[in-house]
């Protein structure tokens, strides 16, 4: 078994596409900016994040047509230089909710939300720095 991706169900596909591609700087697989599906990958690593239009999945599972309330996901991305990356994404329109700040003696984090309200945690692993 292999984890292929984490998929977020979104209502405003175009806004989320721009966030993951232009603000966070992830690489879209096909360039389907209007959806209904797109996978994004970081420059390194094999993990991916995909977006799928919520209405498409609601056609299969009717319960997904209900209004979304509360936080239902937390996307975690590891970055090498948290402060520099946060400066870059803020200049591209991101709003940080927290950090960059220590979370433990081994990790620094920052938090933000995508246009749908999904939480995104950026991690800098201090042990990897030596």
Automatic annotation (TrEMBL):
Residue ranges of coiled coil: none
InterPro entries per UniProt: Glyas_Bleomycin-R_OHBP_Dase, Glyas_Fos-R_dOase_dom, MMCE/EMCE_epimerase, VOC_core
TM stretches of this protein: none
Gene Ontology MF: a single term: methylmalonyl-CoA epimerase activity
Alphabetically ordered keywords of this record: Metal-binding
Domain of life: Bacteria
Protein name, as recorded: VOC family protein
Biological process per Gene Ontology, one example term: L-methylmalonyl-CoA metabolic process
Pfam families (alphabetical): Glyoxalase
Gene3D superfamilies: 2,3-Dihydroxybiphenyl 1,2-Dioxygenase, domain 1
PROSITE patterns membership: VOC
Domain VOC: 2-125
């Amino acid at each position: 078994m292999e984890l292929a991706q984490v998929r977020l169900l979104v209502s405003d596909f175009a806004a989320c596409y721009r966030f993951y591609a232009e603000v966070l700087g992830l690489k879209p697989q096909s360039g389907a900016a209007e959806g209904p599906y797109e996978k994004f990958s970081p420059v390194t690593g094999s993990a991916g994040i995909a977006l799928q239009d919520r209405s498409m999945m609601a056609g299969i599972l009717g319960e997904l047509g209900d209004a979304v309330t509360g936080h239902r996901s937390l996307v975690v991305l590891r970055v090498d230089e948290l402060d520099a990356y946060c400066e870059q994404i803020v200049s591209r329109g991101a709003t940080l909710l927290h950090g960059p700040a220590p979370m433990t003696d081994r990790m620094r984090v920052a938090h933000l939300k995508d246009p749908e309200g999904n939480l995104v945690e950026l991690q800098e692993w201090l042990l990897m720095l030596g």
